[in-house]
Amino acid sequence: NENRIQEMIKRAYHEHWAIGQFNISNLETMMGVISAAEEKRSPVLLGISNGTIRHLGYSYIEGLVRTAEKVADIPLWFHLDHGKDFETVKNCVNIGFKSVMIDTSTLPLKENIEQVIPVVHFCKSHGIGVEAQIGVTWDEETGDESQEKTNPEEVKIFVESTDIDYLAFSFGNTPGRLSGYSNPDIKLLKEIADKSQVPIVMHGGTSVPDPDIMISISMGVSKINIDTLLRRAITDTFLSLYPNEASAPGDPRIAFKAMRNEIAERVGNRMELFGSAGRA
Ligand code: G3H
């Protein structure tokens, strides 16, 4: 049943393509992502970060969930990105999210597993897809660069003892990087993919070079998270439309629309690269 994200990701895993998770921060950014997905006939995950939960609050986010389900004519799911605790997971599931990440990756392995297990039980009993992480990546919100690449020896034990649906890990990716490229360790990625036995998730998708993305997908990456790409699209749009007050558009909707189009363009381009275009 491909109505469930778990099944769609398994399908991507077996067919060697990846579903994009694009993080949105309001109605307009959501519209840009949905229009790209519709144009490319691509299934899509709409990511909500802790920052967006703080920015919008659960009630407005619930409005986005209902609206998206009503208007979109492609398969889409809301996903909690880097959920910090069980409470946040429950709040998101209550407002209609179908996929969540519990990220307690900064804890030692045993404690990480202990935090993930109850979340997995809850999610399985509600039919929700669940992702967790081993290894620490650059902290997207604080900019903390201290990384600890995933130890491949811990992968099997983590996946087996938690029973998660998809696995996030650290292999030199740098989520939230505003410019330039990261230096992904593809050898490590392959080792992790071979040991994981579940689809794997690439965080920091914006700054991974295209050839590395392609090769990662062929090795088992089936979900790719993208946030900064949209942020850059927004910044570029506003900088070009508002170079100074004299030439600023009087009607802000001109800028919002240009921003939506720019997001749709860049997201659509990623859907082509990930091979999710034409799968809906
Ligand atoms: O979970 C979100 C992603 O890791 C975002 O990474 O901002 O580098 O695209 P990015």
How would you sum up this structure, described in words?
It comes from Sediminispirochaeta smaragdinae (strain DSM 11293 / JCM 15392 / SEBR 4228). The chain is built from 10 helices and 8 strands. With 280 residues, it is of the alpha/beta class. It has one domain (5-274): TIM Barrel (Alpha-Beta Barrel). Strands 1-2-3-4-5-6-7-8 form an 8-stranded parallel β-barrel, surrounded by 10 helices. Helix 4 (86-94) links the parallel strand 3 and strand 4 (99-102). The longest helix is centred in the last third of the chain and has 23 residues, at 252-274. The protein is globular. The mean pLDDT is 95. The protein binds glyceraldehyde-3-phosphate.
Bound molecules: glyceraldehyde-3-phosphate
Could you give the order of the helices and strands?
HEHEHEHEHEHEHEHEHH
Q: Round the mean pLDDT to the nearest integer and report it.
A: 95
Helix content: 40-55%
Strands of the largest sheet, in order across it? 1-2-3-4-5-6-7-8
Summarize the biggest pleated sheet.
8 strands, parallel, barrel
Report how far apart the termini are. Answer: 13 Å
The CATH architecture category equals Alpha-Beta Barrel
Overall 3D shape: globular
- Report the CATH topology name: TIM Barrel
The total count of helices amounts to 10
Q: Radius of gyration in whole Å, from Cα?
A: 18 Å
Quickly name the level 1 CATH class. Answer: Alpha Beta
Low-confidence stretches: none
Cofactor: Zn(2+)
EC number: 4.1.2.40
Active site: 81 (proton donor)
Binding site for Zn(2+) 1: 82, 203
